[in-house]
Amino acid sequence: MRFVAFFTALFMLFNVSGSTVVDRVENFRLLDQEHSAHELYYHKNAKAVVLMVTMNGCPIVRNLLPDLREIRAQFGDNVEFKLINSSLQDTYKSIRQEVDEFAFDFPVLVDDTQLIGEVLELDRSGEVLVIDTSNWNVVYRGPVNDRVGYETQRNDAKEHYLADALTAVIAGQPIAVPKRQTFGCLINFPERQQKAAHAQISYKNTIAPILKERCVSCHLPNGIGPWAMTSYEMIKGFSPMIREVLRTRRMPPWEVDTSLAEIHNARGLTLEERKKLVHWIEAGSPRGEGEDPLLAVKPLEKSWSLGEPDLVVEGPAFTVPATGIIEYQYPAIANPLDRDVWVRAVSIQPGETKAVHHVLIGTSEQDIPRGERRLDAVFKNYLMGYAPGAESYVYPKDTGVLVKAGGQIHLQIHYTAFGREATDVSKVALYFHNEPPTYNLRQQVVIGLDLQIPPGEARHEERAYFEFEQPAIIYSLFPHAHYRGVETRFDVHLPDGKIEPLLHVPRYDFNWQHSYALAEPVKVPAGARLVHRTVYDNSTENPANPDATRNVSWGLQSENEMLYGGFFFRWENGTSEKPVHDELNFQIAQFYGAFDDDFSGGLELNEMPGWIRNAFETGQLRQFDANKDNVLSQSEYRAFAEYRAQEARR
Ligand code: HEC
After folding, report:
1. Of 397, 431, 392, 428, whose CA–CA distance to 413 is shortest?
2. 460-489 pLDDT, tens per residue?
3. Domain presence at residue 48
4. Which residue, judged by its Cα, is nearest atom 32 of ligand 1?
5. How far apart are the CA of 358 and the centre of ligand 1, in A?
6. Total domain count for the chain?
7. 437 lines ligand 1 (CB under 6 A)
8. Paired residues of 358 in beta bridges
9. pTM for this predicted structure
10. Rounded distance from Cα 218 to ligand 1 centre (Å)
């Protein structure tokens, strides 16, 4: 023991002086070069997280990658490895180029606000930080080894600092020399010298207006937010928590990646807003001069903001328990209308705002028995989805949705317990067109019925598509998965092979269901496919995962999964009077999109669902494989479906 202590003391003499190793790294979430989200505390099951500081164009980092790979091969079961880039001059795009060119096989976390690098006291690329997940302390920072220096390198390292540190952390031992000098390129952190200026950020002119714009729609009296932003004192009191939700990108919820397509109702903060808020909080949340704009925040008003509705219906009363998980509710209300109407706008007024996380609404011509409602009923003839701050949907110009007389109005309501029992009665308002509109606004889904998520797998992607038989215009997108869904996307695959990204939600959250309205409707030609992809985390690291030991397949219950991408669109050439498609085409498009896993357009044997494969192998369907290639093309399937329909009519 003494011997060890002596050597440790001796090593300390050679340790670089200066600031100590960061004590507890607070949680953060950053996106990588592909815009996938990484959260530090997600890796609680690993023994350590290694962050290597990188910067495009740094020869030392490029040189050290093989060493890092070797170390990962040795420790990868226990340790999570990531790169982090805080450089001002690097962008997602230029980082992707660097990653491609030098075949990085580590995610590069993009610290685009520099907020994380500032606090971690990053300084030079090439440095590695070892974070012990038992207490989130940085237990080692310095070079990977002694192989690479400025304009010098050896074939082999003599000292293996990082590997030694990891061996020690895994064994629960202290690290002999926790901090060493790194060779690498200096990173410019201009705001680091600006601490005095941060204390001058104006609460009145800068901070309060950001909060009003981005947060107050939920954080107001009677709003869904658990506390209201009604004064400087409230903000000051909550400021450490505000800083945390900004660093972890938990608020505002349903954030999208706006570097792709513009989303009309996106809620993210700009980089500048994020920096201003966090720097102001880090400077002690100074009050500064001027009146307090938040004193003017009024309680949420329950009124129909679109004016007097043509029809208001009320859902049944539901008692929300004080705590616990509440399964989705699927109430149905008899449609009181005795005539067909074209709806032009819909509005929802939740009764107990704090409890209602989302409401979807749709209608059906026939009554659907209680046991069969589930997710489907609202999508028979979908009208809108409510989320806090998005109470109304005014349909795009000249479009409408036909609601036939009779039948039912369906709601799907997601309640969240908020600490006291409450009774909710939510109301729906419909606004009608006087004349039939020019276009029929339609709702469809991309659906992945054959999804299979292996147990324990942390990043499993499923995809499905819907192919447009005619030119169409897409207006909004609604991704839906359950507790294992963590990231979701929509892209358009054009017939010429080009791919256009439409929506990317880097961190999908079952608790926040949201319809994303495209800022500009997107026109797609015939033959284009709307592709929906979702990444599922079925590992124990996913705190929402109900059971990491199960192979998970499709199911409406939340312990099963869904790949379900709703979208509003209209046919470019069809009018509300003259539909331009037939139902069978619709069904076939959806069916192929669900099962054609390799996107070839046909169904190979291994892609066929059981009953089709049976029919195919017993010969009943085989005769429809006109060209005998063992692949069921869409036209072959259509011939079969038409034959079956005829048989049924006989
Ligand atoms: C769409 C509604 C909505 C918006 C917009 C929103 N919040 Fe929240 N916020 C909530 C809800 C609901 C909660 C309660 C936690 C939950 O359910 O996720 C919450 C919780 C919080 C908390 C407490 C964290 C916790 O769960 O303990 C903070 C702090 C916070 N929000 C800050 C903000 C800030 C800052 C903004 C704006 C940048 C913002 N929120 C925007 C709805 C919202």
Report:
1. 428
2. 999 999 999 999 999 999 998 989 999 999
3. yes
4. 242
5. 15
6. 4
7. no
8. 414
9. 0.87
10. 7
